[in-house]
Amino acid sequence: MASVVVNGEQQQSARAGRSLLSFLRFDLGLTGTKYACGEGLCGACTVLVDGQPLRSCMTTVDAVAGGDITTIEGLATDGELHPVQQAFVDQVAMQCGYCIPGFIMTATALLGREANPTSGQIREALAENLCRCGTYQRIEQAVALAAEAMTGAAK
Ligand code: FES
Ligand code: FES
Known about the structure:
- The chain has 155 residues and is of the alpha+beta class.
- The chain is built from five helices and five strands, in the order E-E-H-E-E-E-H-H-H-H.
- Helix 2 (83-90) crosses helix 5 and helix 3 runs parallel beside helix 5 (136-151).
């Protein structure tokens, strides 16, 4: 039995060795976290564990027991999108949208440690996230816009 906090609520997995991604999607119904490669290569399944991005397809619930997990569903507050989510909408950064939760979680972690990232820092942080629709330029612009919104800084 492994306990974790998911989006502010205590949750338990009774299945030893349960994949964190399967736990989130199938046991908790949090389907915003996506399954794509399943091999740690694309980032679609990224969630935050104690504020750090983690590929949920590559870990088990047991491995993050006691952790504080945030999924894409946990970012909005009181019906208001998180600034990173809003910036992706404003920049029309989605095509099919399948990769976007992973990008948003990775970008949120970046802005948590670096409030005003350079273009190079944004690219480096997102370099391991793949978008099959190729909307990388708009994604980078969205992260810059989010940084601006979160700090009030003109870039
Ligand atoms: S589904 Fe986890 S990295 Fe691709
Ligand atoms: S928007 Fe389609 S995979 Fe990224």
